[in-house]
Amino acid sequence: MSEIKTTIKQDLSDEEVSDKREQQLATDLQLISLLRENPDILNRHPELISVLEVTHESGGAVSLIERQVNVLRQQSQNQESRLRELMDVARDNERLSRTCHRLAVDLLATHDVDDVISIVLDTFKTELSADFAVVKLFSDDAELIERSTGLFVDVNSEELNAFKTMLQHKNTVCGKSTSEQKDYLFDDKAEKVKSVAIIPLVAGANLGLIGLGADNAQRFKSNMGTDFLSQVGELISASLAGHLQSHAEI
Fold first, then answer.
1. Which of 10, 59, 150, 232 has the fewest CB atoms nearer than 10 Å to its CB?
2. 113 and 3, same structural domain?
3. 157 within a domain of the structure (yes/no)
4. CA torsion sign, 49 to 50 to 54 to 57?
């Protein structure tokens, strides 16, 4: 009886193995048929190459393995490229941080508005590669405006309407500007300016504007982050506010 049971179990086991083999064969035939009908499947879905397994027999080259190697090599190159981009961003951020720190220290040592303007213009031209840099400070003092040779401008000038929204929202803007804005900021050099950054100077009240221009259309782009320029604007505004207050008291 035990021999019969053993034989029955063995027969069932053999049948199970046979069923599995038949199922596997049917699956393989279906896959083979699909691959033949879609010979470009790996071109359309290259991600499959990295998960396929093919035994590399000695002798002739196996094209699929070569393709896998190429895909992995491309993935590695993409990762290296991304790493280099991140390192470049980190270096730029470090450089901007040093620039901001140095500017803050220099501004603390200034004695008057002229000192502030001199440091600001030098910083933007040397550190930010601005081909053109200008500062416009608002005032209602006609005598000061006449004496300042372009630094102080009439706060009630209609030309400032071109900057109304920017000043209301205290927004630093990068990229293209209107012709009115460029003409006002850069005067006879406006035609040479291809890209612009405009920084509002605000410390309690609207103090003025900083205009940065470049003859390269890609230097100041609309998708540039403006956080750094805004922070610099705040530093300069705070320094100017103190000196302007002292000047008014005198």
1. 59
2. no
3. yes
4. positive
Q: Are strands 205-214 and 195-203 parallel, antiparallel or unpaired?
A: antiparallel
Of residues 188 and 250, more confidence is placed in: 188
Helix (H, G, I), strand (E, B) or coil at 31: helix
Average pLDDT score, the chain? 81
SS3 215: coil
The rounded radius of gyration (Å) of the Cα atoms in the chain is: 35
Residue 128 lies in a domain: yes
Which residue spans within 60-194 are E strands per DSSP?
132-139, 152-154, 173-175
Asked if residue 35 lies in contact with residue 41, where contact means CB atoms within 8 angstroms, the answer is yes
- In what helix (H) or strand (E) does residue 79 lie, and over which residues does it extend? helix 63-108
- The pair of structure tokens assigned to 160 is 């400032």
d(CA 182, CA 190): 6
Q: How many domains does the chain have?
A: 2
Q: Map residue 159 onto helix, strand or coil.
A: helix
For 204-218, how does the pLDDT look when each residue is reduced to its tens digit (9 = 90+)?
788 999 999 999 888
pTM of the predicted model, to two decimals? Answer: 0.64
Residues 206 and 163 in one domain: yes
Amino acid at 148: S
Note down the domain range covering 38.
Answer: 1-53
pLDDT tens per residue, range 86-109? 786 677 778 778 888 999 999 998
